[in-house]
Amino acid sequence: MSWFKREDNEIVNDAERTVRTEGLWVRCPKCSQVIFKADLEANLHVCPKCGHHFRIGARERIENLLEPGYQLVDLELRSTDPLQFTDLKPYKGRLKDAQKKTGLNDAIVNAIGNIGPHPVVISAMEYSFIGGSMGSVVGETIARAVDRALENRHPLIIISASGGARMMEGIASLMQLAKVSAGLAKLDEAKIPYISVMTDPTTGGVTASFAMLGDLNIAEPEALIGFAGPRVIEQTIRQKLPEGFQRSEFLLEHGFLDAIVDRKDMKQYLEDTLSWMTSNSQAS
Questions:
Q1: Peptide bond between residue 193 and the one before it cis (omega within 30 degrees of 0)
Q2: Do 246 and 219 contact (CB within 8 A), yes or no?
Q3: Fewer Cβ within 10 Å of end Cβ, the chain: N or C?
Q4: Residue 265: CB partners within 8 Å, gap ≥ 6?
Q5: Given the DSSP bridges, would you call strands 108-115 and 71-73 parallel, antiparallel or unpaired?
Q6: Can you list the residues of the chain whose pLDDT is less than 70?
Q7: What is the pTM of this model?
Q8: 126 near 101, Cβ under 8 Å?
Q9: For residue 282, what pLDDT is reported?
Q10: 39: alpha, beta or left, given left = phi > 0 and alpha = psi -120 to 50?
Q11: How far is CA 60 from CA 71, 244, 264, 284, in A?
């Protein structure tokens, strides 16, 4: 392609045009539709042509669900490097890069607020922070959300978006699976509702623990949900997996999910669900 071309007797620099429009358009990875970025944002980052749900951040999810006036809490915790872990680069360097990229201390955001008239506690995972991996800070932050829900008897909602446990923290990461699961058992004993919302992707130890322990387990359309990834499973069993394996629709069909909810319908769905869940818990 020529770097320059003539239009209406003027020389136009294609490279400059590219720079001026860069970031204004997004191509849908599913249907290849080119979407004006502002239109995509107005549609909650869902493709208007095919319905593909783009990944979004934890703070945006909270903004979409809670009424104005909500409060972000438990943001002060920071991961350490107990193992002095280094692979291609030191873990401390990865943490600094992720903190700079996301503006968060770790891959989780807690919030307290209302969905409609219902007070709730939300923990939303941030996939762009080291793949939403669960280290000691993520586990402790979710545990604090559980404690808030217990103390105030408010329903808990965890929005998962994670590649699983954070290998850089070793056993300190894996301990969080039991820690959070034990906290959720206390919620169950107290008859306080817990809703698990799974988004793309929800995998590894997160799926093996709290993501699948909800009183209600729901997911966004076509979210990848599973323990090991499809490629690992195929290599292990040496068989081709069914079409759509480990996607939300497959899991719903096989009884692993209670519902699939479009992003635009999620807030109303949760509000309606909380209406009957809280009335039932109060009655009991």
A1: no
A2: no
A3: N
A4: none
A5: antiparallel
A6: 1-22, 280-284
A7: 0.89
A8: no
A9: 57
A10: alpha
A11: 13, 27, 13, 35
- Output the DSSP codes for 115-149: ETTEEEEEEEE-TTTGGG-B-HHHHHHHHHHHHHH
The pLDDT, as a whole number, for residue 263 is 98
Q: By three-state DSSP, how is residue 77 classified?
A: coil
Are the CB atoms for 141 and 181 separated by under 8 Å?
no
* Distance, CA of 48 to CA of 41 (rounded, Å): 11
Of residues 79, 73, 182, the one with CA closest to residue 124: 73
What are the tokens at 135? 């280290």
Dig out the tokens for 245 from the structure: 């394996």
Instruction: Give the position of tokens 């217990």.
Output: 150
CA nearest to 145, candidates 130, 160, 131, 127? 160
Per-residue pLDDT at 22: 58
Closest CA relative to residue 187, chosen from 148, 139, 135, 138:
148
| CA nearest neighbour of 91 among 51, 61, 133 | 133
pLDDT score at 281: 55
Q: What is the pLDDT of residue 10?
A: 47
- Whose tokens are 């076509």? That residue is 222
26 phi, psi to nearest 5 deg: -130, 135
Per cent of the chain over pLDDT 70 is 90
Q: Is there a contact between 173 and 206 (Cβ–Cβ < 8 Å)?
A: no
Sorted by where each begins, the domain ranges of the chain are: 15-54, 56-283
Position of tokens 């503006």? 103
What's the CATH fold of domain 56-283? Answer: 2-enoyl-CoA Hydratase; Chain A, domain 1 (3.90.226)
DSSP string, 213-264: --SEEEE-TT-BEESS-HHHHHHHHTSPPPTTTTBHHHHHHTTS-SEE--HH
Residue 83 and residue 282: Cα distance in Å, rounded?
Answer: 46
Which of 2, 126, 119 minimizes the C-alpha distance to 56?
126
